[in-house]
Amino acid sequence: PDRLGILLIDGGGRDGLRPCTELPHVFTHLVASDPVRMRECAQALGGELKRRAELLGGLDFTTWHARYEEARALPGGRRPFGPGDRRGDLDSPASSTLRLRPAAPPAGPGPSPLPRIVVLADDFDALVAPALGSPGRPSAGSVVRVLEAVARDGERLGVHLVATSARPDRTEDTELARGARLRIVLDPPVVPPSPDEVAPGRGRLGHPDGRVTPFQGGRVTGRIPRTATLRPTVVPLEWERMGDPPARRPVRELGNGPTDLALLASALERAARSVNAERLPPLVPSPS
């Protein structure tokens, strides 16, 4: 969590990403229903981009970190001198004696390493074209502008963007959509659901070179049966039942266990505590 932070944005204002806040890497969750907090978050994220641009200068995120680690490896954690640095100046007084003026104390290794930040914006189309009467409509434009700044400049600064849209026709002309390097298209679920059809989550990943990779995603918020954690059991199988489809789980066993997301969050939390890693401070205070 101290090296990777996740910023969640619920563009539709429905609080759908709330279960993901259990992950220790999530340091801010913005629901697009409070225009004041939306504006504050957009300003804070824009300020973070400017701060990183000033700190990195002409370097990219990876190069800056490599030089930072190199500086920490020096004795005393001193920063390596570059070609333009001077160890001391010649002081030429009126006399013919040259004296070496001591150099300024060497600077420290610099600020602590910058963590990567991933901004996950759900329902981006609801921010681009908010519905009439939407409470977040007055500040939706400021959020869209800062997200486009992340898409344009964030990669060099260690800030990455993942955006979802239920209405691609509303977002296809945005700078974010035009600059997207990877695109995922989910297949629509079968209605009504059928056991003979593939489970929801089937989709295609589009690469920059035109390749397409099909995949099957999992529903991490679905509750697993508590019996899924029990040891395997052996049951007798009669000859006359050979070839029959496997028996379904009893309905009472479904949906009464923890979610996959909760199990993942718990494991990450334990791992973070084992190395004393703390999550990043929030961009804006959480609503009371």
Automatic annotation (TrEMBL):
Residues 103-114 have a biased composition (Pro residues). Residues 74-114, 187-222 are annotated as: Disordered. Residues 74-83 have a biased composition (Low complexity). GO terms for molecular function: ATP binding; DNA binding. Keywords: ATP-binding, Nucleotide-binding. The keyword ATP-binding applies. Signal peptide: none annotated. It comes from the Bacteria. This is FtsK domain-containing protein.
